[in-house]
UniProtKB/TrEMBL annotation:
Keywords: Lyase, Metal-binding, Zinc. It comes from the Bacteria. The keyword Metal-binding applies. Coiled coil: none annotated. Pfam families: GFA. One of its GO terms (molecular function) is metal ion binding. The keyword Cell wall biogenesis/degradation does not apply. This is Aldehyde-activating protein. PANTHER family: CENP-V_GFA DOMAIN-CONTAINING PROTEIN-RELATED, GFA DOMAIN-CONTAINING PROTEIN. Residues 5-116 form the CENP-V/GFA domain. Belongs to the Gfa family.
Length: 136
């Protein structure tokens, strides 16, 4: 049996579980993901909606996404962590934000989307110093 995908928000008030294998693992650089996360792009694990459940209070926010259809992003009602989304163009999936996984090392991206919207906020720049911990 496949190990479930488990995760939670910063304060621990919301926890989620997705059973089964992921359908895809990717990094999205669309402007909506950048703005929702405050980063250059979002690492995403796509799972079946039928295999997904969560506990705790969330706050949903719905906006027209890159598909031209609404996407609902779900945040913890207490700490504001961005946890998962439900794209309306694909109601049978849920997108988990890999930074909230209990085991983020399981995330293995297979592709990048909206690469044309990728920009200098992306931290994967080999020409600048990289520190294993906080910068001195």
């Amino acid at each position: 049996m496949t190990t479930p995908w488990l995760g939670h928000c910063l304060c621990g008030a919301v926890q989620y579980e997705a059973r089964g294998d992921s359908l895809a693992q990717l990094i999205c650089h669309c402007r909506d993901c950048q703005r929702a996360s405050g980063s250059a792009g979002l690492p995403v694990v796509v799972v079946r909606a039928a295999d997904f459940s969560f506990t705790g209070e969330i706050r949903p926010y719905t906006k027209i996404g890159g598909s031209g259809m609404p996407t609902t992003r779900n945040f913890c009602a207490h700490c504001g962590s961005l946890l998962f989304a439900t794209p309306h163009h694909a109601p049978d999936i849920v997108t988990l934000y890999a930074g909230t996984l209990d085991e983020p090392a399981r995330f293995k991206p297979e592709f990048v989307q909206f690469a044309s919207e990728r920009h200098r906020l992306d931290a994967h720049q080999p020409d600048i110093p990289h520190h294993p911990r906080r910068a001195p």
